[in-house]
Amino acid sequence: MLSHIYLKDFAIIEQLDLELRSGMTALTGETGAGKSILVDAIGLVLGDRADSGVVRHGAEKTEITLSVDIEDTPTAKQWLLEQDLILDDADDECILRRVITASGKSRAWINGSPCNLKLMRELGEQLVDIHGQHEHQSLMKKTMQRSMLDDFAENHTLLKAVSEAFENWKNLKNKLELLSNQNSDYQAKLDLLRFQTQELDELQMSENESQSLDEEHARLANSGELIEASSQSVSQLYDADEQSIYANISDVVQRIDAAKQLDSTLQEPLEMLQGAQIQIQEAADLLRRYQESIELDPERLSWVNQRLSSFHELARKHQTNPEQLFEKWQSLHAQLQSLSGDDYDLDALQAKLDTSEADYLKAAKKLSKARIKSAKTLSNDVTKEMQQLGMEGGKFIIQINQSSIYSQHGIDTIEYEVSANPGQPLKALNKVASGGELSRISLAIQMIAAQKITLPALIFDEVDSGIGGGIAEVVGKQLRKLGSTRQVLCVTHLPQVASCAHNHHKVTKIKEKTNTSTGMIVLDDTQRVEEIARMMGGLDITQTTLDLAEEMLLH
Q1: Which of 84, 226, 246, 500 is the most exposed place for a label (fewest CB within 10 A)?
Q2: What span, in angstroms and rounded, lies between the C-alpha atoms of 531 and 549?
Q3: Terminal CA-to-CA distance of the chain, rounded, Å?
Q4: Which residues, 6+ apart, have CB-to-CB distance to 133 below 8 Å?
Q5: Residue 72 in contact with residue 456, Cβ under 8 Å?
Q6: Does domain 1-127+455-523 correspond to CATH entry 3.40.720.10?
Q7: What are the pLDDT digits (tens) for 455-485?
C-alpha cells in the first residue's frame, strides 16, 4: 500500500507531507481547491509524462517522493530484486522519487537508484490502479473496451502469444508479397550472380594469389640479371681470393690483432672487424644458395603471364583491382547463397506463411475462447451492479464476433452494449444519450473490474460524477467494501461517498497577498462532521445539517 507522499513546489502546493493509511480514504474540498492534485502527483511518480507546467510558479523544480509498503506485494518485490533496485527480500519499503525542473527536464529514482520512466511505469502497474473521472469517455472507444475485458480476464499471456504469432505471420506475408512483385528482377539478379560466380569459380584462385604472382613474375622475368648480380656479389665478397672483401678484412684483422699486444684498447675495433667477417661469410653463403635457386624457366614465365592476364581481365569486369578479386568472389558467393535460400524461394515462403497463419489462428481462437468466457461473467456482474446504481431492469452485454481481419489483438470485434431501462433494446455504449446513465454504467464496470484487480491500491478520481442520493450511498458502501481488502483513495464531491470512508482528508486553498497554495488537513471526527455538513449544505450550515452529517457518519 501507499504509506507516505511528500510534495514540494508541485502545481499550487508549496509543500505537503502526508501519511497515507489503509482502508478507504476520502479526499474532499471546495471546487477549485485542487482535490485531484494528489492523484496527479501519484501518477507522475509512477511514470506518467510531465512538462514544466507541473512546477509551482516561481519555483525552480518540483519534487515528488512516494513511499510504498510492499510487504504484501510479492510480485513487486520480486521485480525490484530482478532489477537490482532493492537490497534484499527482507526490505518491505520502496521509495520512488521524481524531480521535474522548470525547463521541463525530468529525473527519477527507485530506492535511490536512477531509472527511466519505463521502469517506473512497470513498477507502478504492479502497485496502483487509477480510475479517472472521464473514464466513461474512453469507454466509448472499442480499443478501451477490448483492453478492459482482457485486463478483467487476465489475458496477458494469451495476448503476448497472439501478438508474437501475428508479427511472424505479417513479416512472412510482407516478404512473400514483396518477392512476388519483384520476382522478375529477383530472377535477373540471381542469374547475373550465378554467371559472375561461375567465371570466378573457373579461375580457382586462392587468397593473396595475385600478390604472389606479381612477385614470381618479377623474379622470372629478371632471372638472368638476378643470377649475374648474385654471382658477382659472391665473387666480390668471398671468392676473389686476395681481392675479395673478406680477404682484405682478414688482413686488417691480423694487423690489429698483432697491434693489440701493444695496446689493449684495440680489442673493441678488433671484435667489430671479426663480427664483420662472420656477417660477410654468411651473406656470401645466402647469395650462393639464392643463385642456385634461380632458374631460367620460359614456360613458367608464360603461364604466370597468362594467369596474371586473367586476374586483370576479371578485375576490370568487376570494377576492382586484382588484389581484391578474391574478396569480390567471396562477396558474390555470399549474395548468391542468400538469394538461393528458403527466404527467397516462393514455394518455401508460402509454406512458411501457411504454417504461421495456422499458428496465429490457433492462438487467436484460444484468446477468443477466454474472452467469451470472461465476457459472460463481466456482463452478468455489471448488470447486477447497474441494478444497485438505480438502473433497475438495465442490462449490460459484451458482444464478441470473430472477424476475418487479423491483428496483434486477435480476430475479435468487441463491443459493449447496454439497455438502460427494461424493455429497451440493447444499444452500443456510445449510443447511450444520457450523460448520467453513461457515468453510472462506467462506474458499474469500474467497480466490478476493481474487485478483480489484485493490486494493493486503487484510486478513484471523481468517478461518482453525475450520481447522487441513495445511489451515491451505494457507491460509498461499495468503495468502503473494497477498502476492507486493499487501500482505496477516492476523490469525491458527494457527502454520501465521503461519509463511508475510513479516513478523511480535506484539501484547502490558502490565499495570501502574493500567491495561492493548496494544503491538506487530516480530519478528526468533529472536523469530518463539519466537512460532510459543508458538502451537504453549502455556505450556511445549520445544526440540522450538522446532525444529519453526524448521523451519516455513524451509519
Answers
A1: 84
A2: 8
A3: 27
A4: 36, 461, 462, 463, 465, 491
A5: yes
A6: no
A7: 788 888 877 777 777 888 888 888 898 888 8
pLDDT for 108-159, tens place per residue? Answer: 999 999 999 999 999 988 888 887 765 556 677 888 889 889 988 989 999 9
Q: How many CB atoms lie within 10 A of CB 307?
A: 17
Q: Give residue for cell 439497455.
A: 419
37 and 518 Cβ atoms separated by less than 8 Å: yes
Q: Which of 360, 352, 354 is nearest to 411 (CA)?
A: 360
Quick one: DSSP state of residue 339? H
Chain-centroid distance, C-alpha 17: 34
Strand partners, 15: 8
As a whole number of angstroms, the distance between CA 478 and CA 497 comes to 9
d(CA 540, CA 523): 20
DSSP 520-538: EEE--HHHHHHHHHHHHHT
Distance CA 477, CA 481 (A): 6
What stretches of 428-537 show up as alpha helix (H) in DSSP?
435-452, 469-483, 495-498, 525-537
Handedness of CA 73, 78, 84, 87 (dihedral sign): positive
pLDDT at 182: 57
Residue 296 C-alpha from the chain's centroid: 70
Enclosing H/E stretch for 22: none
Closest by CA position to 514, among listed 14, 178, 94:
14
Measured CA to CA, the distance from residue 35 to residue 11 in angstroms comes to: 12
Q: What strands lie across the sheet with 113-115, from one edge to the other?
A: 13-19, 2-10, 61-69, 93-101, 106-110, 113-115
With beta carbons less than 8 A apart as the criterion, state whether 504 and 492 touch: no
